[in-house]
Amino acid sequence: MLVYPSLSLETLSQAMEGKSFPVERIQRIFLNRDNSKKGKRHLGSMGNRPSAFVIPPMRKGTGKALLVEGIEDALSLRGEYLSHWMFVGTDKAGLKPAAEFIAGENFKCILIIADHDLEPESFKIRGQGCALRAGQYLN
């Protein structure tokens, strides 16, 4: 099982400074023995506040960021983007709220990555549609 906290804009700075902070929501991803995803579940609530999981760069930063739909995307891309900040939504609907963490920061480039959802059929609620709206928000 993977477990990670959702941060609020208020708790982000505390977490990045290594200070204690209250955790109001976590996400659990259940894995099968072969490491395939079995399911996921959110515990707790952030109310109407934006939330995200933030992964700092492992190498000296380049002023670039990735906004990704889920932790699975972030972990699979981490090795290729070691000098990038990663902002992780908990699902496709979490892309725009996670974009609020990036707004106001001075990133040179932001790459938005969403899953290729096969259902539902409406583009508006697919991951790609949510990524488009997050990009429009950041523009």
Describe this structure in words.
The chain is of the alpha/beta class and 139 residues long. The protein has one domain. It has helices spanning 9-16, 71-77, 95-102, 127-138; strands at residues 2-5, 25-31, 37-44, 53-55, 64-68, 85-88, 109-113. The protein has a 4-stranded mixed β-sheet with strand order 4-6-5-7. α3 (95-102) packs parallel to α4 (127-138). The longest helix is centred in the last third of the chain and has 12 residues, at 127-138. The radius of gyration is 15 Å and the shape is globular. The N and C termini lie far apart (36 Å).
Walk me through the topology.
Blueprint: E1 2-5, H1 9-16, E2 25-31, E3 37-44, E4 53-55, E5 64-68, H2 71-77, E6 85-88, H3 95-102, E7 109-113, H4 127-138
Parallel strand pairs: 5-6, 5-7
Antiparallel strand pairs: 1-2, 2-3, 4-6
Strand fraction: 25-35%
- Work out the oligomeric state of the chains in this entry: single chain
Annotation, overall tally of beta strands: 7
H/E element sequence: EHEEEEHEHEH
Q: Taking strands numbered 1, 2, ... along the chain, how are they ordered across the largest sheet?
A: 4-6-5-7
Helical residues, percent:
25-40%
**Number of structural units classed as domains:** 1
CA-based shape: globular
Low-confidence segments, ≥5 residues, pLDDT <50?
Answer: none
Count every helix, treating DSSP H or I runs of 4 or more residues as helices.
4
Overall pLDDT metric:
85
Question: How many angstroms does the end-to-end distance come to?
Answer: 36 Å
- SS content category: alpha/beta
Note the main attributes of this structure.
139 residues; alpha/beta; 4-stranded mixed sheet; 3-stranded antiparallel sheet; 4 helices; 7 strands; 25% helix; globular
